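Illustration 12: GerAB/ArcD/ProY family transporter.
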Amino acid sequence: MIKSGFKWMFLIIGTMVGAGYASGRELWQFFGHESGLAILLFSIMFGVCCHVILSISYEQQTAHYLPVLRIIVGKHLTSLYDILILFYLFTTTVIMMAGSGATWQAFHFSYWWGIAILCIPLILAFVWDIKGILSMNSLILPLLIGGLLFVLVLFTLEQELSLLSHIHEQTNWASAFPFTALNILPLVAVLGAVGKHVRHKGEIWVASIGSAAVLGVISFIYNSSLIHISEEILLYEIPLFAILKHYPYKMFIFISFLLWVALFTTALSSVLGLVSRIQEKVRMPLWLLALIIIGVTIPFTSFGFATLIEYLYPLYGLLNLYVLSAILLYPIANRYKHDLRY
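Figure caption equivalent — predicted structure in token form:
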């Protein structure tokens, strides 16, 4: 049960820790100064949302997200949010691919070469179906989390940062809501595709609490590090590189590889959400659907990584607030309906 719970936990973290998050761009966009309470609120709400979505997926034994979405937002809004989720997953895939191009550009490779390096293994991953994708996440996510935490803790210790020095300043607490909302749609899309693979309710508790705790700790340390170098962030498309400039070139290469892994895992989750939804309508092999989707997304990567995050992420955060509210209220509303039956 615990082992299976960790499998879902890594899937959740892999969905969340993409280019925007691992690079620091997404955290800085929403948090920054005076955000300790905001990060705590995000962790709590994120854990609740993961538990609700996985529970519905498990109860309905879903193979794609539509039944989960229908229960959360009601049948009248399902079509609207279905379109929004498809658009979100599509643009997230575009952002991950653009991030891969930007990462390889840092090593003086072609932007398009960087995109190709992401696309090829992305298509190959779908040859092994969902089980192969879960196994891949379980292998590479611990490396990603460990590497990111190692750099952030090392930076915190070397710069002698006090993580609790501004604990009394928490005016930015409200940013927790759009930030959590931003990450709700991919969770619905991805966790809705695996409901029939969950075997026990205990797996849901392990995945929900574990992912919320891990992401909360990393977010707090990462945000504190970015505050320390806030004046330099404007000079970098990827804020993490502003931290890495303090370290040897070998460290830069290692973390750049981890950043690329984060891009890959989120692109993988996004394409999984898309193909599982489309396969309901079009009976084609997953890898062929993935190939078609990736082929369509490539031209849109020319907009650039930072530009896409700057405009699309805040917009999604606002649009998803209703879904976030519906998920957070679901346990209460569901209990009320249950009580009325008896």
